[in-house]
Amino acid sequence: MADSVAPPSRSRDLDKLLLRPGNLVGPNFEPGAELRDDLQEYARILVVGAGGLGCELLKDLALSGFKNLEVIDMDRIEVTNLNRQFLFRVEDVGKPKAEVAAKHVMERVSGVNIVAHFCRIEDKEIAFYNDFNIIVLGLDSIEARSYINSVACSFLDFSVPELSLASLSHLLLGYLEYDSDDKPREETIKPMVDGGTEGFKGHARVIVPGVTPCFECTIWLFPPQVKFPLCTLAETPRTAAHCIEYAHLIKWDEVHSGKTFDPDDPAHMKWVYDEAVKRAELFGIPGVTYSLTQGVVKNIIPAIASTNAIISAACALETLKIASGCSKTLANYLTYNGVAGLHIKVTEFVKDKDCLVCGPGVLIELDTSVTLEKFINLLEDHPKLHLSKASVSHRGKNLYMQAPPVLEEMTRSNLSLPLYELMDKIAKDTIHVTGTTSKDDKKTSSLRKLRVVFKGIDGVTDMDMAGGA
Amino acid sequence: MIRLFKVKEKQRELAENANGKPPVKKQSAGELRLHKDISELNLPKTCNIAFPNGKDDLMNFEVTIKPDEGYYLGGNFVFTFQVSPIYPHEAPKVKCKTKVYHPNIDLEGNVCLNILREDWKPVLNINTIIYGLFHLFTQPNYEDPLNHEAAAVLRDNPKLFESNVRRAMAGGYVGQTFFTRCM
């Protein structure tokens, strides 16, 4: 190998992690120059978000030796971003964040290639996300995280013995196969690294779908958003925020009937601010300012550049660990709190085995002739389910609804059709059922994920997307 | 996982798409939970649900309430529900489409119901909201007013309130405000 004669390089520090064996390394770690080169050549990383965290992440990942990066963000640069989103300059205001961030990092870090996507995450085909090895999240909403999480988990495939034997690629490439049913096939796992900050607090977590808890497994941990009662806003405002929300939620509709409020339109924001000031004067409440108005309406929490830097560093390091195996990864949720002193803690969250998003679901094998009605009856006797009165949905289509009567009527005609046809002749797919489970005479309502596999269909047909009902 | 990435990259070069899983939009967790709520709806005869976008869009629907007692007996009140993909982490957005003379519903259709905002909990469901809305018609409440005038009349002169409600529901003016017939 040539590394003994190589000149001292930019990757000197990285080499210490990648070229030497160690005691804390992950399984299958193979130190060496090949690993370093492979990381550069083969690892494809997507950064979601090019804001406060995203800018840091792109820079950190580029400096950690990753060369194939892409970034997606739907926003344009605003003046108020410039204090912390350091890849942007005054002359960039109004330009797409993803494009400017990508360009700037490519100028500063030679050899790195960053493709920018200026669009919403939902605008991309699901297949777009499958092209990446690791997805790193620098987002600011539960909704966006939940979406990316569901996309990443949708690539998961749990092995089914007969089908995996039929699958040619497995035989050819000699993939690792699990003997148990409910384990994910390794090549379908799409790891995510999620960062988040709120003022002086932040988190970094590693999500390995099917192995560690996914975003949905622990979504209940988020505190509910603070919402003021409408009647308080209308009648007894006590704080500046009450006055702002009054103008935003009640007064706007009263004056602009039918026109939706756009938080990104400065004229709209100014209108809400002016109305809030009037309201505050009426009730003798101090403290309504334009920036507070923006903060309340857009739910903005002041961002701190150093928090972003710390969280991003943790995320970039985890990404490097997942890709290279140079160390075991974080297990699995790191919280950082810099409000009073400094506190960092790692908590190992547990997976929800029945998670509707990342869980394997209950495996059910069926003949292609089984009708929907027969299938619903089968669920009642299934030893793992005992689910009666099931309603069934597949890929967003409601195949049968027990209630309300209007939906029952609309879906009743499906009962006599074969489930295979209703599922667009896909040999193996996920469906969801809701119904009543009885266990020891106790009845509870439940929502379950099922993996339906049709017998006697060649494994290859599950790639056939064209088949219509 | 770099070895895996490598294999995948080679595989991609060999056959684009041949081994890929079909790209499909997955249902959000919110949709799935809503599916459960809807399939378990147990509505009183006074409430009706409709899905204007057909059987496969459960995220947007309308509920019609026909009170069978109280001031609003005989009226038809339509509410629109908009459910977010992160339901039940977030309450559905509910608006009253029918213009109504009511202390807790303003003329723009905003509804003051605690479980829609400050008291929403993920354990609540669509059924509880509909019962909550129904309750607003049998027990209008002047202590949490959104329509200030209607609340004052209900508090100070229930007889006048009753006749105002009848007039509004029959289609007519209450003060300066015109209400369309909803009986």
From TrEMBL, chain A:
Signal sequence span per UniProt?
A: none
PROSITE patterns according to UniProt: UBIQUITIN_ACTIVAT_2
Keyword Acetylation appears in the UniProt entry? no
Quote the InterPro entries the UniProt record gives.
Answer: E2-binding, ThiF/MoeB/HesA, ThiF_NAD_FAD-bd, Ub_act_enz_dom_a_sf, Uba3_N, Ubiquitin-activating_enz, UBQ-activ_enz_E1_Cys_AS
Q: Which UniProt keywords apply?
A: ATP-binding, Ligase, Nucleotide-binding, Ubl conjugation pathway
Catalysed reaction(s) here are: ATP + [NEDD8 protein] + [E1 NEDD8-activating enzyme]-L-cysteine = AMP + diphosphate + [E1 NEDD8-activating enzyme]-S-[NEDD8 protein]-yl-L-cysteine
This enzyme's EC code(s): 6.2.1.64
Residue limits of the E2 binding domain?
364-455
Q: Which domain of life is it from?
A: Eukaryota
Pfam families referenced in this protein's UniProt entry, alphabetically: E2_bind, ThiF
Q: Does the keyword RNA-binding apply?
A: no
Query: Which pathway is recorded for this entry?
Result: Protein modification; protein neddylation
Please state what class of enzyme this protein is.
ligase
- Active site: which residues? C231
* Family to which this protein belongs: Belongs to the ubiquitin-activating E1 family. UBA3 subfamily.
| Role played | Catalytic subunit of the dimeric E1 enzyme, which activates NEDD8.
Name assigned to this protein: NEDD8-activating enzyme E1 catalytic subunit
Q: Which organism is it from?
A: Xanthoceras sorbifolium
Automatic annotation (TrEMBL), chain B:
Ranges for domain UBC core: 29-174
Which residues are the active-site ones?
C112 (glycyl thioester intermediate)
**Which SUPFAM superfamilies does this entry report, sorted A to Z?**
UBC-like
In its keyword annotation, does this UniProt entry include Repressor?
Answer: no
| Keyword presence, Zinc | no
> Which Pfam family is an annotated match for this chain, by its short name?
UQ_con
Q: Which Gene3D superfamilies match?
A: Ubiquitin Conjugating Enzyme (3.10.110.10)
What's the domain of life for this entry? Eukaryota
What are the UniProt keywords, alphabetically?
ATP-binding, Nucleotide-binding, Transferase, Ubl conjugation pathway
InterPro entries, alphabetically? UBC, UBQ-conjugating_AS, UBQ-conjugating_enzyme/RWD
Family (UniProt) = Belongs to the ubiquitin-conjugating enzyme family.
The protein in question is named UBC core domain-containing protein
Could you tell me which species this protein originates from?
Xanthoceras sorbifolium
